[in-house]
């Protein structure tokens, strides 16, 4: 948290102008503390260190400042702000959200592939239909892909649609179909997938707790039997 705070105030021109050297010194201290922490972890955990995804995450984020002395790569130093994400590991509710997200990644990858196919299809269609009259939106494949992406995010899509409809009154069919295929259908698929992942995660946790209860019951029975044998 402190590291994130100082990285944040370090972006202020006033702070850099008046306390730049102090901020650089504090930044170096944070790098030293993180480096020592990781060194101890690697030394004591050895191979087990790399079995934990959070440890690998820390290693990458902390190693970035080693390259910040190179002028072209100095911007990478700000990536250490990602270490703030480490807090999510210690909050149970956030941990469940992260676990459910990781569980849904294969399904999300499939949806993203479907979305790319839809984007490409509508981009090519846009080039073929509107490139001559509206090159700023559909002049080439790159511009068309960007326009399709912008429309799918519902950002000023109506303005683009109205401009195109001035020369192609029937083009509303294209835009409505694009919105139905992306902004509505695909987003709902992702939300449904995340909800299913949360439900599956809860079911797994319930199964684990149920197994523990059964183990405790078996252990209790064994203790009772031992007591009976001791009394005899």
In short:
The chain is mainly α and 232 residues long. The chain has nine helices and no strands. α2 (13-45) crosses α3 and α5 packs across α7 (141-152).
Structural topology:
Elements (H helix, E strand, L loop, with lengths): L1 H8 L3 H33 L7 H11 L28 H12 L1 H26 L4 H4 L2 H12 L4 H9 L6 H60 L1
Helix pairs in contact: 1-2, 2-3, 4-9, 5-7, 5-9
Task: Describe this structure as you would to a colleague.
The protein has 232 residues and is mostly helical. It has nine helices and no strands. α1 packs antiparallel against α2 (13-45). The longest helix has 60 residues, at 172-231. 10% of the residues are buried. The mean pLDDT is 78.
Mean pLDDT: 78
Number of distinct beta strands: 0
What does the radius of gyration come to?
28 Å
Sum up the overall morphology in one term: flat
Please describe the biggest sheet, giving its number of strands, its sense, and whether it closes into a barrel: none
User: What fraction strand?
Assistant: under 5%
Give the helix tally. Answer: 9
Q: What string gives the helices and strands in order?
A: HHHHHHHHH
- Going by helix content, strand content and strand pairing, the class is mainly alpha
Residue share in helices?
Answer: over 70%
Any low-confidence stretches, pLDDT <50, length ≥5?
Answer: none
Distance between the termini: 62 Å
């Amino acid at each position: 948290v402190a590291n994130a705070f100082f990285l944040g105030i370090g972006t202020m021109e006033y702070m850099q102008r008046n306390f730049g050297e102090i901020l650089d010194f504090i930044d170096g201290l944070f790098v030293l503390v993180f480096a020592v922490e990781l060194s101890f972890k690697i030394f004591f955990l050895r191979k087990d260190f790399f079995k934990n995804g959070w440890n690998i995450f820390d290693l990458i984020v902390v190693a970035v400042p080693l390259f910040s002395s190179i002028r072209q790569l100095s911007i990478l130093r700000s990536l250490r702000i990602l270490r703030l994400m480490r807090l999510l590991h210690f909050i149970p509710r956030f941990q469940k959200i992260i676990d459910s997200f990781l569980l849904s990644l294969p399904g999300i990858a499939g949806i993203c592939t479907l979305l790319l196919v839809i984007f490409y299809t509508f981009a090519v269609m846009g080039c073929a239909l509107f490139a001559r009259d509206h090159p700023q939106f559909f002049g080439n494949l790159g511009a068309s892909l960007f326009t399709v992406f912008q429309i799918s995010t519902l950002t000023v899509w109506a303005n683009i649609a109205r401009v195109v409809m001035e020369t192609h009154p029937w083009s509303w069919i294209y835009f409505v179909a694009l919105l139905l295929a992306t902004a509505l259908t695909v987003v709902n698929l992702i939300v449904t997938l995340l909800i299913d992942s949360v439900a599956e995660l809860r079911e797994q946790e319930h199964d684990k707790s149920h197994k523990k209860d059964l183990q405790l019951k078996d252990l209790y029975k064994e203790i009772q039997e031992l007591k009976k044998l001791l009394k005899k």
